[in-house]
Specification:
The complex is a heterodimer of chains A (232) and B (288).
Chain A: E1 2-10, E2 16-25, E3 30-35, H1 41-48, E4 56-61, E5 64-65, H2 74-78, E6 81-84, H3 96-106, H4 111-124, H5 140-152, E7 158-162, H6 170-185, E8 189-193, H7 197-201, E9 207-211, E10 214-216, H8 219-223
Parallel strand pairs in A: 3-8, 3-9, 6-7, 7-8
Antiparallel strand pairs in A: 1-2, 1-4, 4-5, 9-10
Chain B: H1 12-15, H2 17-50, E1 52-57, H3 63-76, E2 80-85, H4 88-99, H5 104-107, E3 112-118, H6 126-136, E4 140-143, H7 146-188, H8 190-198, H9 203-241, H10 255-262, H11 264-284
Antiparallel strand pairs in B: 1-3, 1-4, 2-3
Helix pairs in contact in B: 2-7, 2-9, 3-6, 7-11, 9-11
The chains are: A alpha/beta (232), B alpha+beta (288).
């Protein structure tokens, strides 16, 4: 699904924020991505959700060589990736319903199906009664659930979450990861970036550790398909 | 796209655009109206004077006999439809704008003038006619208005080119303002754009959001500009109606001309929309 070989990233003429990244994520896998603030977790996720090109190296996502693929083909690849941002990035001028419906509308999905799917998913995350409210009226945890609903509404093959537990307490953080596990069980590959080591230790998923811009851990373990052991 | 407007238009960056477009449409409509009116007037002057000549007989002794002889000769010439000697009172009236209505005119040695209308299909040969009239006596001259009309038409055409240049500059200025406004709106909504981009929105999808927004503002501004132009043209037409004269009487707009001015808001909306789309596509091309 994702294969990085010797990938490096630098912004402008600055130093590399990611160096020699070798990574292979198989369909249906679940990884935690940890590291201190500024270690490059967000940059690595940006590479994965195609918001950033590598400065060097080989990068393949869904079988496409990202450096060589034509720009007009990237939107189709992006639609197969769901992203949950740390700051949620909900559009406050839209209702909760319209926020969640956005990926389906972008993909040109039938409006009636969109209505049914969004209503069903918002029921699932416990916000079915607040379809027409503004995201600004929700608590942090509720906004997080809307953001997750938006990320998974189009049934992505890969779900990336950037510090999804950063703004919630431990109890809600645990429940959020359980929610990601539910999605993982339906076949979606999940990568959760977090610096909450205590939370990570409560689960038995493999861990990718970023230290000083380098992905640490036995590379072979990371490359092993379906690896469920911890790394690092 | 079904659903709500993803780009809210409450931002300050775009609020001024309709007013700028309104001003541009106002100037464009004035330039267009002037150009169209001049074009029509030129055509009218050309048609009115193309088949007419004036025979001028200098004031000398035995005038009446010479006028009668010239009138007779003109009447017998093939290719002439009508011959009409102007009475002294008519000539005096022509000079009134310069000399006033005093008795001075009657004391001046005025030339005799004969209006001649040529046959439009087979007009008389003017060089032959000039020779024939010269044989009657000295001081008889044919004025076919070509020099005067030529100068007038050249002036009119120069003015029309200037109007076109004005329209081009107005288009250029409008595009520049739209580019500036669209870039500002793009920057103001960059987070929304980035989000849509990450979700897999195509460039055309995002550009369309700005296109519709710009088109709405362009149309709104265009209609305001047209309304102000209509008031201004109405006031000008009332002023022009007070001017009695062969030149200004022709400065009116045909229904087709008015219709073409009425399309200006649509053209402004189209120009605004396409410029905004192109600007957004250029900005998006810098994203991965």
């Amino acid at each position: 699904m994702i294969r990085f070989e010797n990938v490096g990233v630098r912004y402008g003429v600055g130093p590399e924020v990611l160096r020699d990244i070798n990574l292979h994520i198989e369909p249906g896998s679940f990884y935690f991505l940890t590291g201190a603030s500024g270690a490059g977790k967000s940059s690595l996720l940006k590479l994965m959700y195609l918001a950033l090109y590598p400065s060097r190296g080989y990068m393949r996502i869904f079988g496409e060589d990202i450096v060589r693929v034509h720009r007009r083909n990237l939107p189709e690849l992006r639609r197969r990736i769901g992203v949950v941002f740390q700051d949620f990035r909900l559009l406050s001028h839209l209702s909760i319903f319209d926020n969640v419906a956005l990926p389906l509308r972008i993909a040109g999905e039938d409006e009636q199906r969109t209505r049914n799917n969004v209503s069903e998913l918002l029921d699932w995350v416990g916000l079915g009664a607040r379809l027409n409210d503004s995201p600004d009226t929700l608590s942090g945890g509720e906004q997080q659930r809307v953001a997750i609903a938006r990320a998974v509404i189009s049934k992505p093959s890969l779900l990336l979450a950037d510090e999804p537990t950063g703004n919630v307490d431990d109890r809600i953080a645990y429940r959020l990861v359980r929610l990601f596990e539910e999605l993982h069980r339906s076949g979606t590959a999940v990568v959760v970036a977090t610096h909450n080591d205590a939370l990570v230790r409560r689960f038995s998923h493999p861990i990718l550790v970023l230290e000083d811009s380098v992905l640490r851990g036995p590379a072979d373990d990371v490359y092993d398909a379906g690896d469920t052991g911890k790394i690092g | 796209m079904a659903g709500p407007d993803l780009i809210p238009d409450s931002e300050g960056a775009g609020r001024f655009l309709p007013w700028v477009v309104a001003v541009m449409v106002f100037f464009a409509a004035l330039a267009g109206a002037a150009g169209l009116a001049l074009n029509q007037a030129t055509g009218t002057w050309r048609n009115d004077l193309a088949n007419t000549i004036t025979v001028e007989i200098s004031p000398e002794d035995g005038d009446l006999a010479r006028v009668a002889a010239v009138t007779k000769a003109l009447g017998e010439t093939a290719g002439i439809e009508e011959v009409r000697p102007l009475a002294v009172a008519e000539i005096a009236k022509l000079l009134q704008p310069w000399l006033g209505g005093s008795n001075l005119i009657s004391e001046l040695p005025l030339p005799h003038l004969i209006d001649v209308r040529l046959s439009p299909n087979q007009p008389a040969d003017l060089s032959l006619l000039a020779k024939r009239l010269a044989a009657i006596g000295p001081g008889i001259r044919i004025d076919d208005h070509k020099i005067w009309l030529g100068k007038l038409i050249r002036l009119s055409q120069s003015l029309q080119w200037m109007m076109l240049a004005c329209l081009a500059m107005i288009c250029f200025a409008t595009c520049s303002v739209v580019i500036f406004g669209t870039r500002a709106a793009f920057a103001a909504h960059l987070e929304v754009v980035k989000l849509l981009h990450v979700m897999g929105a195509r460039d055309g999808y995002i550009a369309r959001l700005f296109l519709w927004r710009a088109m709405t503002m362009g149309l709104k501004g265009g209609l305001i500009g047209l309304a102000v132009t209509a008031v201004a043209l109405f006031a000008l037409s009332r002023l022009a109606a007070d001017l009695e004269g062969p030149l200004f009487g022709n400065l009116t707009l045909t229904p087709l001309g008015l219709l073409s001015l009425a399309t200006l808001p649509l053209l402004a909306a189209l120009l605004t929309a396409l410029t905004a789309r192109r600007t957004v596509l250029r900005e998006l091309s810098r994203m991965p």
